[in-house]
Amino acid sequence: MEFTQTEENYLKAIFKLSEHEGKPVSTNSISGELNTSAASVTDMVQRLSSKEMIHYEKYKGVTLTKPGLKHAKALVRKHRLWEVFLVEKLQFTWDEVHDIAEQLEHIQSDELVERLDAFLTIQGLIRMEIRFQMQTEIYGFATCSIGRFENWGQRRSGRCPGTLPFFPPTSG
Fold first, then answer.
1. pLDDT tens digits, residue range 47-65?
2. Torsion of CA 60, 61, 66, 69, to 10 degrees
3. Which of 3, 34, 67, 171 is the most exposed place for a label (fewest CB within 10 A)?
């Protein structure tokens, strides 16, 4: 199934907010996170619901379905891999990479992402150690970590502040 960048950004925002809030996400929270109107959020919620990526109950909020969660995690993983590559191999600073990784995370080639992961792993820039567990899926972290989920998406200063996980490949 194909997704627009906007749809993917909504999935990522819902994922981030649900991790932070620990409950279904309100449309007002999504609106605030993406700096968009309530009407736009309602339209997108209906679209993502029709694609079975989210479950929405009026007045109760939005949750990701299993396919929605899988897609959101894949986006976060791609974003983190690109950030590490940009810093470690292309000599960008941590302050510069977030906006660029935001663009690159939408690349649809699974082969490219898997080769990027393999390249960074071989180079010793990614350690696939068990770090935390989230909703029964285990994920790794970048050797030079990037920040905590609470600070996800904010500008970063310095070379390696904090810890932010990325997700390993998912099957199926």
1. 999 999 999 998 899 999 9
2. -150
3. 171
